[in-house]
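[Solved] Which block belongs to which protein?

Original post:
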Amino acid sequence: MFVNSLRRWKERTYFSRMTKRISILLGIMLFCLLALLFMQGYLAYQEFQRQQADFKALVNELFAQSVQAEKSARVDRLVHLFMEDLDDPGVVIIQAHRHPEDELMVFDFMDPDTRDLGTSISFRQTIELVDTLTPETPIWFLEQMEKQARKDFNAESIVFWTDRLGERIKRNMTELPVDTATLHNSFRSKLDSLDIHSDFTIRIDSSFASAADEAMEATVRSRAHPLFADTWIEEKLAMAVIDNPSYAIFRRSIFTIAGSAAVILLTLLSFYLLFSTILYQKKLSEMKDNFIDNITHELQTPISALRLAVDSLRRFEVKDRPEKFASYLQISGTELNRLSELVESILLHSTGRESGEIEKESMDLMELLRAATDRYRQKAEKRVSVTLPDREEFPVVSSRFHLTTIIDNLLQNAIRYSDQEGVHIDVRLEHSGPGFVLEIADNGWGIAPEDRRHIFEKFYRSSDQDRNYTVKGTGIGLYHVQQCVATLGGKIQVHSNHPRGTIMKVIIEK
């Protein structure tokens, strides 16, 4: 008794130290994990910020290109209107003559109504005389005027060649705005070419709010680009505003973020596997110690009874007392059978015979059930009543060893885990396709819900320590049953038997 108490104290001390070490290890692992999560999150945030800045610079560059393209298109439209006015005698009359001093060709712009001279222009690229004008001269003149007009329009300046022509130019420049639809389509095309499909708006105004509002609106803005030169025309600025740019920015940084996420997931998985392995090893250690404790008790009990019976036979004169002699022999035989069954169970587990090759044969399952129930009724130290199926025979083709192991273990558990006053066992048997279903129901103590998913694990015993102290066992009986059922191609289920007890349901499908 003292030795057992000392051993249990040592076990509790050992497991207490192990639990403390595991707690410290868990704390260190959690700290490392949080540090890793923080670092990876910080790196991902920095990458997102960098991609956001690059995205904003890219948007500004693309929009600047679109604005410049539309400004050039507007100048082209103004030049086209100007050239049409030059060709209209109702707007301006142009005459060419030789300058009296340097003999350059001079072109006079005159009002068509009053013939008043508005402006004279000469080009140093030619010194052709008036009397040598060729058919190509007007074409050359128009080309030079187009270049001059394009230069003036790019600078948003107006040259009043004549009053009427100047007013026409001023009206065209004032009334011909930037084509926002074309600007929108151009910018959309440039974004699509880079696989950026975010929605955007183009704002045109004389001024815009500060960039601080950008973060509040969850947008990305380009810089404000002037649509006209800084001249007499009212200043107009154009700005592109990308709505909800987070998805586009996220796509640009997806590889970095995905890499960080992969590192985090792999680290989490590693920590989980490491910690679960530690807990599993701790559980195995506890189960091993419990198994050794239980198996020691199971071995000591029949050995002690045998020693007592043998000592009694040796020390007392029982040869002349047949009833005593027979009693001691019966005790010895019973304990030897108990010891043999225990050793057989351990050997069965160690050799893995329950999951090895099977030899099937024709047999009567009812015969196996009757033999098993008779055997356990005689061995039981309590009242056992068994209700068998109302069948004479139930022929099957299966493994006698595996079926016997299943029936014996289930009947033994039903008897052991019940009240001392007795137990009633109800055995049900029916066909199911090519196989059969065997149910063994009892009105014993039942199995707690938290234990049901573990009862088929090797060495597992009930979480009720008082029950384990009352009924000793190795924790491998139901494990053998589950292995045998699986070898036969079936499955086993556990249910509550109302109002009390357990139903073990074995389904053999072939």
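(Second protein starts here: sequence line, then its structure tokens.)
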Amino acid sequence: MYKEILIKVEPEETAVAVVEDQQLVEIYLERAGSQRLAGNIYKGLVENVLPGMQAAFVDIGLEKNSFLYVEEAIPQRLWEEDEEEHHPYSIGEVLKQGQEVLVQIAKEPVGTKGARVTTHLTLPGRYVVLMPTVDYIGISRRIEIESERKRLKSIAEELKPQGMGLIVRTVAEGMSAEEIAIDIKMLTRLWKKIQNRAAHGSAPQLIHKDLELVQRVIRDIFTENVDRVLVNSKENYEKVADILDLTAPGLKNRVAIRDVKDIFFIYDIPGQMEKALKRKVWLKCGGYLILDQMEALTAIDVNTGKYVGTTNLADTVLKTNLEATVEIARQLRVRNIGGIIIIDFIDMDIPQHRALVLDSLENELKKDKTKTNILGFTQLGLLEMTRKKVGQGLAHVLQKDCPFCDGKG
């Protein structure tokens, strides 16, 4: 698999496309005037405490107040006491109206809903995520070799700042203790700056803004398994090179300038994005998928369509379902579909065929950096799975609802 990242920066919009074997698998858009808020840290003011919902509204200076659940407001020491004494804390015991609180946006505001925030702050670096308010060590689930997990855990235990937590990221696999230590020192300095700003600032106020799109992509996505990064100007190339000088100098030779009118036309990214908005998706074999995104869940139906096979019905069904697993995993990433997902594969009577389809889907989902969980087949033969909601879906970003006909465009 040949993996590339295409970066297009223009005055009104920054767009990043992740491409695998010339197929679009992820798209990120950031427009001027509508910057990403998730990850930002604010000094907020508690406006209302709602015992009936075990939550509070916190003014962080945005158009709508943010929403803070009790689980996201309880400090670690109270959690530890709660576990020992089995005492469930109520929101009124944790927060009071008019109280100042340091929070981080965990979920972007959508429609009429304000942002969802947490007091359990996280500061992501290239190799680790620093958790200043939680004493904990975690290793990325994508690092599967047990000896490497033990090595990284040992390094994390040695380098972890006292009273803080660390999550070791996938990209840390194979990295030395010295490289990880540099990352931790940088994040620790950042946390001290945040504490200083919070101590001297009034609420509501933005205390720390997360990195811009290009910087986040280089930090989070540009790893050893990426073969090439293409940027659309010398200026952007130099920005990317400057970031890599500090984080991953060994990857600089994989970055190149492609000075064309529109870098996205190399692989017809606009056309692939347009297809990703359609309800019907054709498979190479002649079968097709129907994707219906609803408020509660996303339903995906698999059909044989034009594919009639060559040997027997069971073989035709298996081949269609196996090809569908590849396309379903890609569509979930391209469309950024989150929440509950129900897949109606074509009925399979042979248990081994079901197992093959399940294995294929699991393998394809390993390419997805967003957390997924396959729950298995129900008694009705439907496959249940979940995918973590991260940001807004592609349809929400690119389309608007028509107030007259309830259509989208």
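Accepted answer:
You had them paired correctly. Confirming on the second one: The chain has a mean pLDDT of 90.
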